[in-house]
Amino acid sequence: MPKPLFPDRDLRRVTPPNEGTSGTREAPPEFHERYMRVQDWPIVIGEQVLLFVVHKNAQFAKTEAELANWQCWVIAEWTGFNGGGWTWEGIMGRPTHVASLPPTPTEHRFKVEK
Fold it and tell me: Residues 71, 93: contact at Cβ < 8 Å?
């Protein structure tokens, strides 16, 4: 089993939603119970999840703000193609943790006409 890149880093802190901000903010308490190490996640082909990805350059970050540029949560899914593996768009790196996507909001801004 690979050794974690940052065993002392707190994954409960999430990166900001847009590039114009720096630093991190605290995740909601219910999120702490949702994520687990990637090797412990039960694989379901095609299931969309949140995947925490850490780029190799994160090891050189000197501040939390710099670190936020090299690690983040992405929406990903496991594919069965060519032996299987995680697929996502965005930052390159090594997946370390997985979490379920939050439920879809029950109140939608736009109503679907029937």
Answer: yes
Residue type, 17: P
Q: How far apart are the first and last CA of the chain?
A: 52
**SS3 (DSSP) at 64:** helix
**Paired tokens of 24:** 């991190």
Give residue-wise pLDDT tens across range 50-97. Answer: 999 999 999 999 998 899 899 999 999 999 999 899 999 998 999 999
Q: How many CA atoms are closer than 13 Å to the CA of 76, on its beta-carbon side?
A: 27
Across 38-111, the runs of DSSP E, i.e. the strands, are: 48-54, 71-79, 85-88, 94-100
Query: How far apart are the C-alpha atoms of 59 and 39, rounded to whole Å?
Result: 21
| Residue 60 burial (10 A CB sphere; 0-12, 13-18, 19+) | exposed
Pairing of β 36-37 and β 85-88: unpaired
